[in-house]
Amino acid sequence: MATELKMPQMGYDMEEGTVVRWLKEEGSAVNRNEAVAEIETDKAIVEFESDSEGVLLKIIAPEGTVVPVGQTIAVIGDEGEETDNISILDVRPPEEGKSDPTKNATPPTEPQESTPALSVTKEASKVSTGRILSTPIARRMAEERNIDLSYISGSGPGGRITKNDVENYKPDNSNVEKPAEPSISVAPTSTTIVVSNTDSHSETSEKQPISKMRQQIARVTVKSKTEKPHFYVSADINMTNAMSIRKQINEQLKDDGVRLTVNDLIVKACIQALTKYPKFNAYYEEDGIQYNDKINIAVAIAEEEGLIVPAILDCGEKSLRQVSQMIKDLADRSSNGTLSPQEYSGGTFAISNLGMFDVSSFVAIIHPPQSAVLAVGTVSEKPIVTDGEITVGQVMTATISADHRIVDGAEGAQFLIEVKRLLQSPTSLLV
């Protein structure tokens, strides 16, 4: 029986997505959990995997088509199976002029002067002349920089071009021959300046277009602050013991390639605290509180265009070492643009760490539909008073932002104190 592949919802408030590229052609065999298309949301381009196996009978949404969430984009079934009964719903055609960056981009070269006598450039040789394997984020970067991917060697699995390959690409200048001491004059390039006309004394200014990711961040944060009554609870945490244990573990396991970070310890502490206080792992809905069976810790990751909050999934029973490996894997695949839709949208609790920027403390905005987020600053040396004695210890400030519709201030304090207890006596995190 034919199965309809529908536009997935890859974000809390995602209403539509764009089919960027089909990875399979009609008539091709498709395995379960195999990537068949790339879908663009406001925040990323994500590979869309089929939840069925069979033959790709029909592509309903061509590349570039905008499709509402839940509507059919393709049909998978048995070879020769009829698809006439599949209804084609509302889709927007591809935007005019929007096409594959590898088809329209010109071979990358160094900027050339307009005078022909200045240089003679030989055609650069392409690395690939067949199908180009690349990650979605690599293609987006290539399009923005007008780089032809066929000139780049991929370092990823199977020769796939990654984000780092595009960032590290430099045009081959060896084929450029310049005559000795050319005598020419180069006219200065013109610059377009947008001038505000609000009054005659206005200074010149330039308006930068807002990216799709920035627009999405604006929508989500405004929605969160409008709908969710935030409250905040802060505490200073003595991280001296945690930092000592981290150092010991890293020294003992360095030959195994293990390197625990402060964030790994914080994530593990939150996992254990959420087990004890499950409200902070729940969603508020109009007809009740929806408790989540699994703990999915979302970790804020800053990218060039903005912030994403992907999650390590089903980590409730994972050891500290496993949690560390999951976080590193998440960061690597975020950089390469290979995160799954569930990782983008499945978080049940979030952690935002700005400690690497030497920030003492801050408050974070809850990421819908989650109900809480923990914001942590840097670990720094501070005086600590114990039984009238002053010592110097390593201290970190943590602030929980929580949805007052689900939990109250006292519960927020209890949760944060549990995280504090676990980090100040970190041996329980090693079990």
Commentary on this structure:
By secondary structure, the protein is of the alpha+beta class. The protein has 3 domains: 3-77, OB fold (Dihydrolipoamide Acetyltransferase, E2P) (Beta Barrel); 108-177, Irregular (Dihydrolipoamide Transferase); 228-430, Chloramphenicol acetyltransferase-like domain (Chloramphenicol Acetyltransferase). It has helices at 101-104, 136-145, 163-168, 212-227, 240-252, 262-276, 320-336, 341-345, 409-424; strands at 3-6, 16-22, 29-30, 35-40, 45-49, 54-59, 66-68, 72-77, 120-121, 176-177, 230-238, 282-285, 288-291, 297-299, 301-302, 307-308, 311-312, 349-353, 372-376, 380-386, 389-403. The strands form 6 sheets. Strands 11, 14, 17, 18, 19, 20 and 21 form a 7-stranded mixed sheet that branches. The radius of gyration is 26 Å and the shape is globular.
> Would you give the CATH topology of the largest domain?
Chloramphenicol Acetyltransferase
| CATH C-level of the largest domain | Alpha Beta
Under the CATH scheme, which architecture of the largest domain would be assigned?
Answer: 2-Layer Sandwich
The end-to-end distance, rounded to whole angstroms, is 48 Å
Low-confidence stretches: 96-104, 108-123, 174-196
Average residue-wise pLDDT = 83
Number of strands: 21
Question: What is the string of helix and strand elements?
Answer: EEEEEEEEHEHHEHEHHEEEEEEHHEEEEH
The percent range for strand residues is 15-25%
- Radius of gyration equals 26 Å
Share of helix among residues?
Answer: 10-25%
Characterize the overall form: globular
Largest sheet: 7 strands, mixed
Please tally the helical runs, counting DSSP H or I stretches of 4 or more residues: 9
